[in-house]
Amino acid sequence: MKKSWLLLTVILFCACCCAQEAVVAPNQNLILENIPPVPASIAERADRYTQYRMAEMFGWQPQRREILIGTRFGDTQQVHSVAMPMGARTQMTFSPIVCRTPVILAIQVTISCSARM
User: Fold this and answer.
1) By C-alpha distance, which of 73, 60, 21, 27 is closest to 44?
2) Beta-carbon contacts of residue 65 (< 8 Å; ≥ 6 apart)
3) Residue 36, CA distances (Å) to 19, 20, 32, 115 in order
4) How many domains does the chain have?
5) Rounded CA gap, 82 and 58, in Å?
6) pTM of the model
7) 46 phi and psi, to 5 degrees?
8) How far apart are CA 86 and CA 82, in angstroms?
9) 8 in a domain, yes or no?
10) DSSP code of 63?
C-alpha cells in the first residue's frame, strides 16, 4: 500500500512538472534579472485593455455649437460632428483616401456642409 502511494505521488509530481503553463517570451534586447516569467494566460487577459480607439478634436463647427473630431478607420482619418457633450458622433466623410492633413479635411467638410444649408 505504501508503495502504491509513493508511486502515485511520483506520478503526480512528474505530471505537474511536465504540464507547465506557457509563458510570454521576452524580447531578445531585454535584460531581465530577478523577474519571473509571465504566464501566457495573464498576457491574454490583459490584451483586451490594449485595444482602444482615439478621437482627435479638429475644431469648432463655425455655424453651430458642434465640434469636429477625427477618428481612424484602418488607414484613413474620417471627420465626425458631435453636437453635445457625451453626444453621438455623426460621420461626415466616407473617404477611402489616406488623409495626411486632417485639419484641412475638417475645414473642407465644414465649408461643404455650410454650403448645403
Assistant:
1) 21
2) 83
3) 18, 14, 9, 62
4) 1
5) 11
6) 0.45
7) -80, -15
8) 8
9) no
10) S
